[in-house]
Design brief:
2 helices, 6-stranded antiparallel β-sheet, about 45% strand, alpha/beta
Amino acid sequence: MKRTTEARPWEKGIALFVSLLAGVVMLGLALPFLFKLTGQVRITEKTHKSLMAMNLAEAGVERAIWELNYGDIASWSGDLFKRSLTLTSVETAQGLLVGNVEIEVQNPASDNPFVTAKGIVPWVGGTALEKTIRVDLGHETESYFNFGIFGDVGFDLHGNAYIDSYNSTLGAYDPLQPGSKGNVGTNASHQWDVVLLNNTIVNGDAATGYESDPNLVVQLRNNASITGELTTLPEIKSLPPYNPPLLTEKGNFYLGNDSPPVTITESGVYTGFTMGTNTKVTISGDVKIYVNGDFVMNSNSILEITPDSHVELILGNGTFLQESNTQVNNLSRDPKNLAILGTAEFNTMTWRSNSEFWGVIYVPEATIDYAANADLFGSIACNYISMSSNTGIHYDESLGSWDKYGTPSGKLQVKSWQERR
């Protein structure tokens, strides 16, 4: 006879009680975690919504800049002093509602308008999350020095000349690891306007005139090479002559052979500037020297720029001649501290130096004969340049965004940006 066992009623009650007690204990342990998780979800969601509001504000700024540059800001509400636009129920590409954008442009017709844009995203309880951006605008400036070499009507490089790059804001030029942005350019568009011969190397791109055929304009011969791409300019690069400032008349500067050293600390206009053999001129301070005549450095002469100086050498109705074994020593080794600039009347520059040069050269009407047997750190923009004799050009990439010297365009860009609360 088979015997079975059955739980007594009081045993079933104990089991139920234990199960309930265990459930209560587990719930007690889980509740803090659930509350914490819920709080984290709310924080995450709030952060996400805040980012959405910021994105809306940024989109509002972009809309205002587009309207100012390409659209019709006058169609917005307001007057000559202030224009505003509100975009409601902005959606994503997938059709999801994001929020609203309020945009305001102060002084829209001026050279320096500023934009305030507010992004508004719905939040719990009928509230909203808001982010506001204020952006100051100004006109773009295309730097004269966005190429290692730019020859308006062309250039020829030969005699083992080479071009590469570095960035002075990141450190000194490293010959063991040169940069590959030593780009060259021209507005020229005809065959043979650009000639590279005899082992010349361009470590960068080469851009020819607007709507030209770069393969026709650029001619490579005798192991010359361009490591980057052959391209065309998106538009004609403007190279206006430099207009000198009004300065104090200083007369003619003449330093005879073997004369004692001279220091210049004041700006001025000179009818000529001659440095005899074995002489030295030091320039110290923020100095502008306008030479409206010939500038001549005879052999073994030295022009020295002290480390804390910013110097402009402006060339007018005359020629520039730097004979062999001369030196232009920019002791700071910062190309931005020395600029050689040419007026509409300046058209001839001859370099025979055997020393390194740190600086920028902008002589848009001049032909440059650069046979220096040395290295130039900076940038050259001219009418035409012939470069030879193992000359190295090391383009300072930071000059591409340097707006001290350049051509303003009609387009506006962001000059400063801040979040407002």
